[in-house]
């Protein structure tokens, strides 16, 4: 404040005059309070949209980093069309049936050879 008192009044007016000349002209027909409220509300909406996009972006990044596990089907949702010929158990895939057969109904070596020989006969 002392610097302003020390300066020549003409210099102060020239500084103020240059600042005022850079401002837009005052329009008496405009309601500047209403305009400032509109701008404020518009900025609020933009900030909310930006925050929404940031949140959505962070969720997408998390999904890229940690993809969700594949949901397994429940036992009652699987159609069991493959049936075991020896014990009548049913399975949802041929691989499951084959695994069951190997584990629960192991063939004796001689039985498996005779089955293979019969399958190759024409």
Automatic annotation (TrEMBL):
Give one GO term, molecular function aspect.
zinc ion binding
Give the InterPro entries listed for this entry: Znf_C2H2_type (IPR013087)
Top-rank taxon: Eukaryota
Q: Determine if Zinc is one of this entry's keywords.
A: yes
Q: Where is the C2H2-type domain?
A: 82-105
Q: Which UniProt keywords apply?
A: Metal-binding, Zinc, Zinc-finger
Protein name (database record): C2H2-type domain-containing protein
Source species of the chain: Paramecium primaurelia
């Amino acid at each position: 404040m002392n610097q302003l008192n020390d300066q020549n009044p003409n210099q102060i007016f020239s500084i103020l005059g240059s600042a005022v000349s850079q401002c837009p002209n005052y329009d008496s027909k405009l309601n500047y309070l209403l305009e400032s409220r509109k701008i404020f509300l518009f900025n609020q909406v933009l900030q909310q949209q930006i925050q929404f996009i940031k949140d959505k972006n962070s969720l997408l990044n998390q999904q890229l980093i940690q993809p969700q596990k594949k949901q397994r089907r429940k036992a009652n949702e699987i159609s069991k069309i493959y049936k075991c010929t020896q014990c009548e158990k049913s399975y949802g895939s041929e691989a499951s049936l084959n695994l069951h057969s190997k584990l629960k109904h192991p063939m004796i070596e001689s039985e498996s050879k005779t089955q293979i020989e019969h399958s190759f006969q024409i």
